[in-house]
Amino acid sequence: MGAGHAHKLYRHGHSPVHGLPPHTKLAAVFAFVVVVVSTPREAMWAFALYAVLLGVVAFVARVPAAFLLRRLLIEVPFVAFAVLMPFVAEGERVEVLGLSLSVNGLWGAWNVLAKGTLGVAASVLLAATTELRELLLGLQRLKLPPLLVQIASFMIRYGDVITDEMRRMRIARESRGFEARGVRHWGVLAKSAGALFIRSYERGERVHLAMLSRGYAGSMPVIDEVTASRAQWSYALALPGAALAVCLLGWTL
């Protein structure tokens, strides 16, 4: 797994949430999302309580609201899709501000917005309190297929390598006075993309040969054995546990 690998979503801190083992946080977020998705859409008050629960987690993790809201912008395409649903869905219609909207479409839009926003917020909190290397160790601890964990690890590392290579190629083009201003410059960009692919492929071959020379036989060595105590599991599962109680009330009330 190598050394630590920070990412833009991560917010360094020393809160109780940061200190939890990564696999406990992964399990907690997964269980929370499952509970949220299982909640009936008509129980609007339940989704408000879920938001309060996430707010408590953000407060304990010392994640500012502005930080969380900026990261939630990733769901803008889903919001646009949800906004269109009342206009294109069929079924019973209702007048809202002079607009004829579908009742089923309104419920569907609310369902997508509420559950999608809560799921994204939970994922952002997970990313904000857990480094990528720890996430990979957590997935490994949760017995995810080792090959998938390795692929994810290599994708993260080579993503930065390729990005850095693209930056150097861009600087090289600009140092020679090149600026892409129209279609006639697409050929140069296409050649750069081809060169980037060849360099990336060659680097991947060299790294693979280096791994084989060091005894790689299809599995990565476990450097850190991540464990969790019963108290840590209880602390992490407090969020999905409280959400499950809310979900059950939503089905019974």
Automatic annotation (TrEMBL):
It is a multi-pass membrane protein. Coiled coil: none annotated. It comes from the Bacteria. Its main location: membrane. The chain crosses the membrane at residues 43-60, 72-89, 109-130, 233-251. It is found in: Cell membrane. CDD domains: EcfT. Keywords: Cell membrane, Membrane, Transmembrane, Transmembrane helix. The keyword Transmembrane helix applies. This is Cobalt ECF transporter T component CbiQ. It comes from Streptomyces dubilierae. The gene is cbiQ.
